[in-house]
């Protein structure tokens, strides 16, 4: 399959992005008159797990590669819209894996297709009592079910013996 390259808006004379999610510089002279040879650019990983690249004019600007691919090949991204990775792999920036969606559609896709449950950050917890056992994906979800999430976390860390008749531990 042939990789399709297009200029990055605002950097037409210096950089290109491909439909496979790659970025390369073009041969060019910078503002100080130095000549640059075009070459493939190596992305870095953002703290959120997305590939990003620094583009240079007079100062470096860091851009997420999935945003660049979507903008160049799918068109400008309207305010309030997001770029979704269809397969859920944040580093897979191929055009065929990207779509522009609303934040609600992005969350629904994450939950229903990928099985991610937002708002459940933390470790799974289990509570044991003489009446039975309860399990929650996190203390935060136990909090939503009527237990006190902070008391559960204290039990798990050994600061409290029990909460609501249950002995709690991390699963």
Provide a quick synopsis of the model:
With 171 residues, this protein is α+β, with helices and mostly antiparallel strands. The protein has helices at 65-74, 103-113, 139-144, 149-156, and strands spanning 5-7, 15-18, 23-25, 28-29, 35-36, 44-45, 51-56, 60-64, 82-85, 98-101, 125-129, 132-136, 167-170. The strands form 5 sheets. It has a 3-stranded antiparallel β-sheet with strand order 1-2-3, covered by helices on one side. A 3-stranded antiparallel β-sheet has the order 6-7-8.
Estimated structural class? alpha+beta
Uncertain parts: none
Average of pLDDT = 89
| Rg calculated over all Cα atoms | 24 Å
**Approximate helicity band:** 10-25%
- Report strand %: 25-35%
- What's the overall geometry? elongated
- List how many beta strands DSSP finds: 13
- Helix/strand order, N-terminal first: EEEEEEEEHEEHEEHHE
Major beta sheet, specifics? 3 strands, antiparallel
Spatial strand order of the main sheet: 1-2-3
Tally of helical runs: 4
N→C terminal distance:
47 Å
Could you walk me through the main structural features you see in this protein, from its secondary elements to its overall organization?
This protein is α+β, with helices and mostly antiparallel strands and 171 residues long. Helix content is 20%, strand content 29%. It has four helices and 13 strands. The protein has helices spanning 65-74, 103-113, 139-144, 149-156; strands spanning 5-7, 15-18, 23-25, 28-29, 35-36, 44-45, 51-56, 60-64, 82-85, 98-101, 125-129, 132-136, 167-170. Strands 1-2-3 form a three-stranded antiparallel sheet, with helices on one face. The chain has a three-stranded antiparallel sheet with strand order 6-7-8. A hairpin with a 5-residue loop joins strand 4 (28-29) and strand 5 (35-36). The mean pLDDT is 89.
